[in-house]
Automatic annotation (TrEMBL):
<comment type="subunit">
    <text>Component of the NuA4 histone acetyltransferase complex.</text>
</comment>
<dbReference type="Pfam" id="PF22732">
    <property type="entry name" value="MSL3_chromo-like"/>
</dbReference>
<dbReference type="InterPro" id="IPR026541">
    <property type="entry name" value="MRG_dom"/>
</dbReference>
<dbReference type="InterPro" id="IPR008676">
    <property type="entry name" value="MRG"/>
</dbReference>
<keyword id="KW-0234">DNA repair</keyword>
<feature type="region of interest" description="Disordered">
    <location>
        <begin position="311"/>
        <end position="330"/>
    </location>
</feature>
<keyword id="KW-0156">Chromatin regulator</keyword>
<comment type="function">
    <text>Involved in deacetylation of histones, chromatin assembly and chromosome segregation. May act as a transcriptional oscillator, directing histone deacetylases to specific chromosomal domains. Component of the NuA4 histone acetyltransferase complex which is involved in transcriptional activation of selected genes principally by acetylation of nucleosomal histone H4 and H2A. The NuA4 complex is also involved in DNA repair.</text>
</comment>
<dbReference type="InterPro" id="IPR053820">
    <property type="entry name" value="MSL3_chromo-like"/>
</dbReference>
<feature type="domain" description="Chromo">
    <location>
        <begin position="23"/>
        <end position="83"/>
    </location>
</feature>
<dbReference type="GO" id="GO:0035267">
    <property type="term" value="C:NuA4 histone acetyltransferase complex"/>
</dbReference>
<feature type="compositionally biased region" description="Basic and acidic residues">
    <location>
        <begin position="100"/>
        <end position="114"/>
    </location>
</feature>
<keyword id="KW-0227">DNA damage</keyword>
<dbReference type="Pfam" id="PF05712">
    <property type="entry name" value="MRG"/>
</dbReference>
<dbReference type="GO" id="GO:0006281">
    <property type="term" value="P:DNA repair"/>
</dbReference>
<feature type="region of interest" description="Disordered">
    <location>
        <begin position="90"/>
        <end position="128"/>
    </location>
</feature>
<comment type="similarity">
    <text>Belongs to the MRG family.</text>
</comment>
Amino acid sequence: MAPASQMSYQKDERVLCFHHEILYEAKILDLRHIDPEDRKSPFEYLVHYKGWKNTWDDWVPQDRLRKFTDENRELATTLRREAEAAFRQKNVKPAVKKRGGSDRSSARGSEERQTSVPGRGTKRARENDIEKEESFYVRPSVRIVMPDNLKSLLVDDWENITKNQQVVALPAKCSVSQILDDYVKEEKPRRTSTADLDVLDEIVMGIREYFYKALDKILLYRFEREQYRVIRKRWEDGNGEWADKGPLETYGAEHLTRLFATMPELIAQTNMDAQSTNRLREELSKFTMWLSRNSAKYFSTRYTNASNEYIEKSRGAPNPAPATATSRLV
């Protein structure tokens, strides 16, 4: 977005406007400086939401507005579907609890029942644990848009590796680094201000950092860890085609999509405020929708059958992340 002190929208312009997590079609009725005596103060805009009563007309800051483009309209439609699905899921009646049962999970209850007679201070420790758990659940949730075809590709990926005992051929035909570079190249012309370009650069830099740190910890199935061990040795040796390569230059769309399936849980562990969380969700959802449209170009059709020797070695490979991306699909 342009700096708020610059007028990026005009009176009577058709726009999209955020109201909580959903983008609504709206029209700008008026605009003004927040401080009438300071011509450099940010602009705010009086918007009328299409189909809503005039009583809902509202003065909003510039960062809640988006241009009425095909891409943003697609995002608005997707966000609405996601919100409706989340609402339906939220209103499903929970299972009836057993008499005297805890409102915690059965696993947690089982752990507590197996605990020996509590000693001094145990009650306070348990209360602290509950406080920590409750503070975790009140953090802003992030439902990143995951298009259906990406979900299907993740499931196919899971079956190829865990059931068919295959691995993705590496290096990938299009690496994570190349995919992100292509996205930036295509997205930059749509960014009309320095601030918007800065957001794009920051988001892509964050994706790179998360992927680099998360790959060997939560993005690999156990069957892939032997392959990772061999490739990591090649990175360290740095010979031939492996010179100056690492995770971002070796792995591709399959593992990148697994990262986005785990993103809601990763972001929930941060301390971002609601406004920052919503903007991050918007940016990440734009990327997944772009990747979905270009899936034929970036996803591999090359899965290789593992040798008997590889299968034997993979059985002894440690697995620090038994719950992988597919299990987190919603």
